[in-house]
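Quick one: C-alpha cells for this chain, please?
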Amino acid sequence: MTVPWNGMKKALLLVALAVAAAAVGAGSGFARPGTLTGKAWVAATLFGKPPLPGTELTSEFTASGSVSGTAGCNRYGGTFTSSGRSLRISSISSTQMACAARIMTQETAFLKALAVTRSYAISGTTLTLRDAAGRPLLTFEAQSQGLAATSWNVTAYNNGKQAVVSVTAGTRLTAAFGKDGNLTGFAGCNNYDAPYQAAAPRLSIGPVASTRKECATPPGVMDQELRYLAALQTAATYRVEGGRLEVRTASGALAAEFRRR
C-alpha cells in the first residue's frame, strides 16, 4: 500500500513528538537544563521585599536534582523534583553558624519559602517561585558568570597538600580579571600577573609571573604566596554565586575561593 506523502509527514511528526516527550519525561523528572538548572540564581525579593543589606540569598539547581546555595548566614542543600512548571524542594539542611538575629529571621523565612514552593516561572533572567495558591514567594535574577572587569579578595586556597586553607591573618591576597585577558593581583608579598581564558564554566590561568621581593612577616607569608600562585595554575572551572567566586581543578577540587571587592 502506498502512503501519501502528507500522511507520512504527519506520522513522522507524531513519532518525533512522542520521542521528545519521552526523553523529557523519562528517568529523573527534573527540570530541563538551560531553564531552571545550570544557573546561579540570586534572590531579588523575599515575600516582596529585598534581602537585608549585606546578605545574599542564592539557589542553584542541578540536572541531577540537587539544590544548594547561601541562606544569608548559612549554606544549605536539598533536593528537588519538577514536572512542567511544578516544583517541590525537600530534604533541606544547612550549616549551623549563628549570625545577627534579623539575619537569622530572614534565613528561616527564606528556607521556609523554598520548602513551600509548588511552582516556578522564568521570564527572561527572572525566576519566580510560588506557593500552592500561586502567590509569589521569591524572585531571583540569573547571576552573570562573566569574569572580565571583576575584582576579588582571596579567602581560601588549596595548599597543595590536599587541604583548603584560609588566608593567613594579617595578609591580603587579591585577583583582578581584566578585559584584556590578563589576571593581576597581590599575592601577600609580591604583585603577580598571568594570562587567563574564561568561557563559563571553563577557566585556564597561567603561566603566572611575579615580582621578586622577599617578605619576612608575617611568618609563612612567602610559603602562602608560592602555594596560592601554584593553585591558580590548576584552575579548570569556575562559578560565580552572588559575591562569591569558586575556582576548581579538573578533578573538581577547590583551587581557590574569593569574595567580590
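The two ends are 73 Å apart (CA to CA).
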